[in-house]
Amino acid sequence: MALNGFLDIELSVKNPNELGAFWERHGFIRTSDGVYGTADRATVMTIKEGDHRHLSAMHLSCVDESDIADIAKRLESIGVTSRTTSTTLECTDPVLGHVIRIEVGAPTPVRDSGPHAGNRPTERTRWNRRTASIDPSKRRPPRRIGHVVLGSPDIKASNAFYFEGLGYRISDQFAGSSGTFGRVETDHHNLLIHRARVGYLNHYALEVDDFDAVGENGSAVMKENPDSHIIGVGRHLLGSNIYWYMRDPSGNMFEFFADMDHINDDEHWANNVRRSDWGSPDAPAPVEAWGPGPNEAFMAIPDMEEIAQARAKRGLA
Ligand SMILES: [Fe+2]
User: Fold this and answer.
1) Residue 251 Cα, ligand 1 centroid: separation in angstroms?
2) Residues of the chain with pLDDT under 70
3) How many angstroms separate the alpha carbon of residue 294 from the centre of ligand 1?
4) Residue 117 CA, ligand 1 centroid: distance in Å
5) What is the pLDDT of residues 10-21, one digit of tens each?
6) Cα–Cα distance between 8 and 90 in angstroms, integer?
7) Structural domain boundaries of the chain?
8) 94 alpha carbon to ligand 1 midpoint, in Å?
9) Strands of the 200-207 sheet, one edge to the other
10) What is the CATH number of domain 3-109+142-313?
């Protein structure tokens, strides 16, 4: 028994209405003030006002009440206090400062949109009609929040918190433990935490149906603001997901992704597939199987100094 769901995130930004309106134009549904969902899930993102852009909370689920007690005990053993009821736990990330909320439950399943008829050289499944992908009225918006990537100035403490304390399962690691992919669902990663000078949200990622849907959603954002493009479209090595990275109006990087690796046999993955030495300790690990890799816009966070100053004011590195 363990964590079993990455439910939603809370972002704090300078202009929450602007970000909310952006996501409403790109497929989110406002469920109440500052709370946005998709057609599949009532809540995927809560947007609040903050003096700088940052992740302010993550909401997870676990299987049963014994998990709440187990997680509280493990957190205590690494010096992190938590507030619990029999079915909920709340604590604060000791390095990054955002709140973690856990409740007994499970993510709402996404609805089945049916097979997407396609034609491969050896498998023709669409006859005598055009693909739905060319019909703009059939755009398929994001389904769910899939993962976040966080930079940490104290990677040792962060790894202890997420993997020993909360119990994220490790999927892959960069050499020297400088970055670790972790999961609470079957996704290859619901979290990547990597070493950084300042604690910050590198990006949040929204899952869409398939390769076409990455293109459809990314193109719609581009049409509105060509400067929102960062990198894409490509396919990652670790996680295998198709990606398109963009910037939202609040300055946060986000990713539309599809076709990630999924793991339902933890032992098989750990013994046969998992890597713990990706890249080298001195050079950035390669991230793309094909497509454009990290560029200047991806690596250089334009408002890093502002984030560093705002965090310092809160006593955070
Ligand atoms: Fe990502």
Assistant:
1) 16
2) 1, 115, 281, 284
3) 12
4) 27
5) 999 999 999 999
6) 14
7) 3-109+142-313
8) 23
9) 169-173, 179-183, 191-195, 144-152, 200-207, 253-258, 242-247, 229-236, 288-290
10) 3.10.180.10
